[in-house]
Amino acid sequence: AVGFARMDDGSEEGKIPTLIIEGTVTDTNGNLVEGAKVEIWHANSLGNYSFFDKSQSDFNLRRSIITDSDGQYTALTTMPVGYGCPPEGTTQFVLDKLGRHGNRPSHVHYFVSAPGYRKLTTQFNIEGDQYLWDDFAYATR
């Protein structure tokens, strides 16, 4: 999609808030980057990702958006929620031994790429989440 994409498949419509993500891709000098590929994905209201969660449709809450002539993109989606490590899993076992929790705040993942530029991998966390500044993955630092 160029400039805009709806990310959700409608299965959670009316159950959780809508999230509108807007951005502009620029180079390090502030010049607009037309045609950059912005890949966005996040978990559903249960903290699960499509592909790994077979109850979701293919590519639910996963989209690629090509920036328009102004370097801009918009995604219409649902509000993600945070999630924790599987309580009986190896990761949580190690975290328990360290006296740490295994929770991630609500967040949205990004890849941004364009010919002639290095690929950017990043994410943003949702304001107000109780784990906003206490992400077990240290992804908030």
Put the structure in a nutshell.
With 141 residues, this protein is mainly β. It is built from one helix and nine strands; from the N terminus they run E-E-E-E-E-E-H-E-E-E.
Indicate the topology:
Blueprint: E1 4-6, E2 18-24, E3 37-41, E4 62-66, E5 72-78, E6 83-84, H1 90-98, E7 103-104, E8 107-113, E9 120-125
Written description of the protein model:
The chain has 141 residues and is mainly β. The protein has a single domain, classed as Sandwich (Protocatechuate 3,4-Dioxygenase, subunit A). It contains one helix and nine strands. The strands form three sheets. The protein has a four-stranded antiparallel β-sheet, with no helix packed on it. A three-stranded mixed β-sheet has the order 1-5-2, with no helix packed on it. Strands 6-7 form a two-stranded antiparallel ribbon. A hairpin with a 6-residue loop joins strand 8 and strand 9.
The tally of beta strands, per DSSP, is: 9
CATH architecture: Sandwich
Distance between the termini: 32 Å
Broad shape = globular
Please trace the helix and strand order, writing H or E for each element: EEEEEEHEEE
Annotated CATH topology: Protocatechuate 3,4-Dioxygenase, subunit A
Round the mean pLDDT to the nearest integer and report it: 95
* Major sheet details: 4 strands, antiparallel
Q: If helices are DSSP runs of H or I spanning 4 or more residues, what is the number of helices?
A: 1
Number of domains: 1
Strand order of the largest sheet: 4-3-8-9
The CATH class turns out to be Mainly Beta
CATH homologous superfamily, by name?
A: Aromatic compound dioxygenase
Q: Proportion of β residues? A: 25-35%
In helices, the fraction of residues equals: under 10%
Helices and strands: which structural class? Answer: mainly beta
If you compute it from the alpha carbons, what radius of gyration comes out, rounded to the nearest whole angstrom? 17 Å
Low-confidence stretches: none
